[in-house]
Design goal:
The protein is of the alpha+beta class and 405 residues long. Helices cover 50% and strands 9% of the residues.
Length: 405
């Protein structure tokens, strides 16, 4: 029985990158051997065990044979005769197909270290095409390691395109697609994930509402970058600079989906795209099973981002109604996130990347002033029922008006 550190932990150790999780592969052992040593079995599709003290994952060395569709259509062999090299051969990328023994020696049968040095993400073998999930995984790795200078090997891009055009991506589960997407959104360069998927024609399979934005023009006066798809990626890039929250970055990603529904005869104008965007956001979120916090902020962002962009032109009564519609009184943190997403939108334009955005502070100040209105004073003044709500609105508008003036 031999145990090796494998995969991402070895890759990141060689890159001097912080190691978050350690995965181990066990060669020459059976399920009975592992259970006898006190390991707890947790794997469903193949044997994975938790170490009795560290709780780290240990998997029996295995080979895989494609027998069905999708990423689950594999038959695994975890017999004690499976070698370390056979186990490493089934992995996706050469940089993920390295192992380290307890003496610190690197076992690298597919030259992962060479590709690390060249900053190349390259598939291990032709078996790469058997698992459609790898298209998303490689796009995620591209997003994670873009800042290190990594690019995807041309021959790997060809295989990713082949998978995308085979129809196999449709066999993935929504949960798996969202997991890869959410992880990518939390990377330092999440735009690379979506750009990579688009390049290999995979984006339109799961993100059709986003994919169609490329080629749709915006008015050059407000959007020097013109193209809505390019603008969207710029907004996502800006969101990384101002927030590490998944919901903010997702809202940045989908804020302009309504422009995909604008009548082309009206281009580059997109009047009404804010409300038009709600339906495609809901459709996308249903398809991917997106968490409610992400969906809800995204819908607010779509419907109301123009209010924030035009903040200084709004009447006090309009600002108050906007605050009401966003339910800021009960959910101020979500409203603050909306303003962050709007800031990313304003800066996600060519030449505006480092521009100040006083609109967000202005709207937040209006909220703080309106929040100071004491409803108990209204009740104590003798107002009842609907009168209380009416008086509260009037006093809040008056408080906001002081800021507007």
């Amino acid at each position: 029985m031999q145990v090796y550190l494998v995969g991402g932990a070895v890759r990141d150790k060689l890159l001097n990158r912080q190691i978050k999780d350690k995965d181990w592969v066990v060669v020459g052992a059976s399920e009975a051997d592992m259970l006898a040593k006190g390991y707890q079995q947790v794997g469903k599709d193949f044997p994975v065990f938790l170490h009795p003290t560290t709780q780290q994952e240990y998997a029996l060395a295995r080979t895989e044979r494609k027998v069905g569709q999708g990423y689950t259509g594999f038959e695994c062999d975890t017999s004690t005769s499976v070698t370390l090299e056979q186990d490493l051969m089934r992995r996706d990328l050469t940089v993920n197909a390295m192992a380290m023994d307890d003496a610190g020696n690197i076992i690298d049968p597919f030259d992962g270290q060479g590709d690390l040095n060249k900053r190349i993400l390259r598939h291990v073998s032709a078996a790469f095409v058997e698992d459609p999930l790898r298209v998303l995984r490689v796009a995620r790795f591209a997003a994670r390691y873009s800042s290190y200078g990594f690019t995807i090997a041309d021959e790997t891009k060809v295989l990713m395109r082949d998978i995308s055009q085979s129809g196999e991506l449709a066999n993935l589960s929504a949960e798996r697609v969202w997991v890869e997407t959410a992880k990518s959104l939390l990377e330092d360069t999440p735009q690379v994930y979506f750009e990579t998927l688009r390049e290999c024609t995979a984006l339109k399979v799961w993100f059709a509402e986003l994919d169609c934005l490329w080629g749709i023009p915006n008015p050059a006066k407000w959007h020097p970058e013109i193209d809505t798809g390019i603008h969207t990626m710029m907004v996502l890039e800006q969101s990384v600079r101002i927030s590490n929250k998944l919901s903010v970055r997702f809202a940045a990603l989908v804020h302009d989906l309504g422009k995909g529904l604008t009548d082309p005869t009206l281009w580059p104008s997109h009047k009404g795209h804010e409300k038009l965007g709600i339906a495609p956001i809901n459709t996308l979120c249903e398809r991917l099973k997106v968490p409610n916090d992400c969906r809800n902020l995204a819908i607010l962002m779509s419907e109301y981002h123009s209010y924030v962009h035009h903040a200084f032109k709004l009447k006090a009564s309009t600002i108050n109604d906007f605050l009401d519609n966003c339910d800021v009184w009960r959910k101020p943190e979500r409203f603050a996130d909306l303003l962050l997403a709007c800031t990313a939108d304003a800066r996600g334009r060519t030449g505006f990347e480092d521009s100040p955005y006083p609109n967000a502070d202005y709207i937040w100040q209006a909220y703080l002033l309106a929040k100071e209105v004491n409803v108990q004073e209204i009740v104590q003044a003798g107002y009842k029922g609907a009168e209380i709500k009416q008086q509260l609105r009037q006093k809040r508008i008056h408080a906001i008006a002081a800021n507007v003036a």
